[in-house]
Design brief:
The chain is α/β, with parallel strands linked by helices and 247 residues long. It has a single domain (9-240), classed as 3-Layer(aba) Sandwich (Rossmann fold), CATH 3.40.50.720. It is 47% helix and 13% strand. The chain has eight helices and seven strands. It has helices spanning 18-29, 46-52, 66-75, 99-127, 149-170, 187-191, 202-214, 223-240; strands at residues 9-13, 34-39, 56-60, 81-84, 132-136, 175-179, 218-219. The protein has a seven-stranded parallel sheet, with helices on both faces. Helix 1 crosses helix 7 and helix 4 packs parallel to helix 5. The longest helix is centred in the middle third of the chain and has 29 residues, at 99-127. The radius of gyration is 17 Å and the shape is globular. The mean pLDDT is 93.
């Protein structure tokens, strides 16, 4: 199923910087009608409002705060595309003393936050004709790196949830995207020590738009992601995206 973002209303979590900001800007430049910039600090969305005027509406969302998500859903009743971009990165070895605490922290945002967003906005997308639910996962959701072990585990879980959402939301006509960036030039990329090989966040936004036009589920936007995605393609098509019975 293909989808055109022109004249559509979008909500993006973590919209104030990095990949989220690039998604807001690219979607507007490709014809989106309005974007709800969902952020934890409303002041951080001011530059986007100054640039795009009333096409950007800041809303308070903290993925760790279910009430904030419910309140945002009440405001954004007209939304047609939801992009859950916000997430946390806390690199921890499994043998570190704080490994479990680190994993719990990342699961709360990267996995439980995803579920909270999906539960709040799936009914709205259904009421507005189906639309799109897009989840920012990562290449580490497919290939674990030991120095990012707890982050990799949280993103593997969010990828699993995204596959479930693809199946569940298809019943209401909602398209689901699973986006798997590699090293991207963001604060998170810097924290991961990937600055030298990181690529622009606009690649992610443009790849999402292209995937919607092509009807793709998986999105591999950058050089490393394309390499991993190419190797993963057969499994993705024949297992992950296939209609398989549990019996």
């Amino acid at each position: 199923m293909t989808y055109d973002i022109n004249n559509k209303i979008v909500l993006v979590t973590g919209a104030n910087r990095g990949i989220g900001k690039a998604i807001v800007e690219s979607f507007l430049e490709h014809g989106a009608k309005k974007v709800y910039a969902a952020v934890r600090n409303l002041e951080t969305a001011i530059p986007l409002v100054e640039k795009y005027s009333d096409k950007v509406i800041p809303v308070y969302v903290d993925l760790a705060d279910p009430q904030s998500i419910t309140a945002a859903a009440q405001v954004a009743q007209d939304v047609e595309i939801v992009v859950n971009n916000a997430g946390v990165f806390n690199p921890t070895s499994l043998l570190d003393e704080n490994a479990i605490a680190s994993l719990e922290f990342q699961l709360n945002i990267n996995v439980y936050g995803l579920i909270r967003i999906a539960q709040a906005f799936a009914p709205i997308l259904k009421a507005n004709g189906g639309g799109v639910f897009a989840q920012l996962n990562s290449v580490v959701s497919i290939k674990t790196f030991s120095n990012f072990a707890t982050y990799s585990a949280s993103k593997a879980a969010s990828y699993s949830i995204t596959q479930t959402l693809r199946e569940l939301l298809s019943e209401q006509g909602t398209i689901v995207l699973s986006i798997h960036p590699g090293p991207i030039a963001t604060d998170m990329g810097d924290a991961a020590g990937l600055t030298e090989i990181a690529e622009p966040p606009t690649l992610v936004a443009e790849a999402m738009i292209a995937a919607l036009k092509a009807g793709d589920f998986h999105v591999f936007p950058d050089t490393m992601a394309k390499q991993i995605g190419g190797a993963y393609q057969s499994f993705a098509e024949n297992v992950v995206e296939a209609n398989m019975s549990e019996s």
